[in-house]
Design brief:
The protein is α/β, with parallel strands linked by helices and 337 residues long. The protein has 12 helices and 12 strands. The strands form 3 sheets. It has a 6-stranded parallel β-sheet, sandwiched between helices. The N and C termini lie far apart (75 Å).
Length: 337
Amino acid sequence: MSKTSRSVPPRAPTLEDVARAAGLSSMTVSRALNTPQLVRPKTVEKVIAAVKATGYIPNALAGGLASRRSKLIAVVVPQINNNMFVDTIQAISDELAVRGYHMLLCVAGYTQQTEADLVAALLSRRPDGIVLTGIHHSTDLKKVLLNANVPVVEIWDLTPTPLDMLVGFSHEKVGQATAEYLLRKGYRRPGLLWTVDKRAAQRKAGLREVLERNGISEPGSVDVALPARFTSGRQGLAQLLEQGDFDVIVCSSDTLAQGAIIEAQSRGLQVPRDLAVIGFGDLDFAAGNQPAITTVSVDRQIIGQRAATMLADRIEGSEVDAPIVDIGFHFVERESA
C-alpha cells in the first residue's frame, strides 16, 4: 500500500468545532464549559449538546489554568486489595464528587521511595490536593510537597505534627487498649499474628508495652507478609502453635483473625473455649463470622468524608478549624474472645 493511500487517523474535535456546531463564538463556548454559572442556561445547554454531538473532550488542565484548579484530588493508598481501605476510598470519592472534584486513585505499596516517586509524578498533573495514607514519609517526599505548596491530608494515623492536615487515630492506643482487654479477661499467654507495616507495628508496640508492665514480656509472635490474607492467618496460626501453648491469639487484622479461627477449628480447637482470637478493623464479615470476631472498630467512612471535606474547604479558600482530627476507635467484644 502506498503512503498516499493509507488512512489518516481522525482528528480530535476541537473547541472551534464545538463553536461551529453550536453556532456560537469560541469564547462563549469556553465560558460555558469553564464558568457555566456566568452563562445563560440556554446557552450552556446548547454548548453541552454540541459537545456531545462532536465528541469533544475538554482539556481540564488547560481550562483550569486561569483558575489554577485541575479539579483532581490524588489519593495515595498502599493497597487496593486490602478491605481496610475500601470504605475510606469510597467515602473520599463520594464526598469529592459532591464538591465537584474527581479522585485519582494511586497505589504506592509500602515503601517510602515508591510513594515519593509516585507523588512526584502526580504533582506534574497539577492536582488540587493530595491524600496520603499514614504519617511515615521520606525526606524527599516532604521536600517535594513543601515546594509544590499543595494541600495535603494524611489519613489512618495520628501525630501532633502532620505535613498539613490529618484525619486518623492512634495505633499505639489501639494496641494498649487491646492489651488491657486481654488482662481484664484473664488471658496470660498471648500469641501475636502480625503484618509488617508501620501502622501495625505501632499497635504491636502499644500492646507489648502494657503486657510487659504486667509481667508478660515475651508473647509468641509470627510476622506475616503483606497483604494480609485469609490463608496467611491459617498458616500463621500453624506456625504459632509450633512455638508453644497460647490462650489467645491477637491478630493485626480481621482477615488474619478469620484465617486463624478456621485453622484452629480444623485442628479440633474450639474458639474461644480452647483458644480465643482477636482481630482489628471490624471489617464487614467480622460480626457475621462463626464465631463473631472480637475486634477494634474504626469508622473508615468518616476518615474519608472528613479528609475530602477538609481538602475541598482548603482548596476553596475556607478556613479549616481543626487541621488534626482524631476520630478515635472502640473495642467490640464478640464471641471469639
